[in-house]
Amino acid sequence: MSQRRAEPLAQVSDFEIRLLRVFRAVVECGGFSAAESALGIGRSAISQQMSDLEQRLGLRLCQRGRAGFALTEEGQEVYQASLQLLAALEGFRSEVNSLHQHLRGELNIGLTDNLVTIQYMRISNALSQLKEQGPDVQINIRMSPPDEVEQGVLDGRLQVGVVPQTAPLSGLDYQALYGERSLLYCAVGHPLFYVDDRKLSDARLDEQEAIAPTFRLPADVQAHYQRLNCTASASDREGMAFLILTGRYIGYLPDHYAESWVQQGRLRALKAESRFYDLQLASVTRKGRRPNLVLECFLQALAATAEPVTA
To answer: Per the database record, which ranges form the HTH lysR-type domain (predicted)?
Structure first.
C-alpha cells in the first residue's frame, strides 16, 4: 500500500535530487543488484536510499523481494517526473556553461588619443579576440583625454580605459601595457627647423614658445615641460600636433605619432638623443568592480597580446 504523506512536498532539496538520481539508475538497470556497478555503492546502501526516498515522498515506489524488482503505478509516475526534473537541471547547467562560451553584452572602453599608431599596439588584437569569442558583443570606444578616461572608469560609464600611467588614482587598478617615447619637435617654417643639432643649445630651445599639456603626467615628465617657455596649452596630443604644425611652437609628441609627418618632411625632432621622455601606457579598471565576463575576456586577451616595451 502507498505511504501517503500528511502534507504536500514543500520543496525538492539537494538530498532528494541525489536520491532521485539513485532511483533513476535502479529503474534503468532493472533492480538493486544490477545498479550496484552503475552507482558504485553496495546493495544495502541502495536499499537504504530507496527507503529514504519513499519516506520523503510518502509513496511506495517499487516492489522488491523474491518476485523481483517492479515499479508501482506511483513509482512509474515518479520516475517520469524525475526524468523531467533531472533533464531540466541538466539544461540549466548547460545553459549557464554556454554563457562562458558565447559572450553577450557590451564593452565600453575609453582610449586616450593617438594610440593606434604604436607599432606594437595590441589593443585591436585584443578587441578582435573578444569579438571572435563573442560575436554578439557590442564594442563602444570613447576617445577622451586621460583624465576623462580615468573619471569615466571611476563613475562606471566606462568599464576599462588605456591611458598614460601617472600617479594612480584611489579606486582604480592599473596594469602596465606598453612604453612609448616622446621627442621634442618643431615644424617646417619654425626658425629652428634647419638648425643643426650640434649648433643648437638647450638654452636656445628653452626660450622658444612651446606647448604644455593640460592632462596629468608623472612628475619626472612634467619637469621636461617646466623648463620650456610654454605659452600655449592643449588637452590632448592631437591638439599639441595642431599647434606644432603651425610652425610657431615646439612641443613633445610620441615618436610613433609624429613619424608620418617626419617622413613627409613636415616635422623634425630637436636634439633627439637628449630631449625626450619615456611614458608607460596602462589599462585601468575600477577596484571592486562587479564580475563581468565580457570585460574579463578582453583583459585576458589584452594581457596575452601585449608586449611591454621599455624605450
So the answer is: 15-72
Q: Supply the range of the domain harboring residue 91.
A: 14-101
pLDDT in tens, 296-306: 889 988 887 65
CA gap 77, 71 in Å, rounded? 9
Give the count of domains, the chain.
2
Residues linked to residue 93 through DSSP beta bridges, in sequence order:
none
**Model-wide pTM > 0.90:** no
What is the Cα–Cα distance from 90 to 182, expressed in whole angstroms? 57
CA distances from 244 to 66, 131, 234, 278 (A): 99, 38, 11, 20
Q: What is the pLDDT of residues 125-156, one digit of tens each?
A: 888 888 888 888 899 988 888 888 999 999 88
Find the Cα–Cα–Cα–Cα dihedral 91, 96, 100, 106, rounded to 10°.
120
- Pick from 81, 101, 121: which residue ends a domain? 101
pLDDT at 134: 85
DSSP assignment letter at 137: P
Mean pLDDT of the 273-282 span: 92
Co-location of 169 and 129 in the same domain: yes
Q: Give the other-Cβ count within 10 Å of 117's Cβ.
A: 14
pLDDT at 255: 93
In the chain, DSSP assigns E strands to 62-63, 70-71, 106-111, 138-143, 160-164, 172-187, 209-213, 229-234, 251-254, 267-269, 276-286
Q: H helices of 142-268, where? A: 146-155, 202-206, 219-226, 237-244, 255-263
Which residues, 6+ apart, have CB-to-CB distance to 74 below 8 Å? 2, 59, 60, 61
Q: Give the CATH number for residue 96.
A: 1.10.10.10
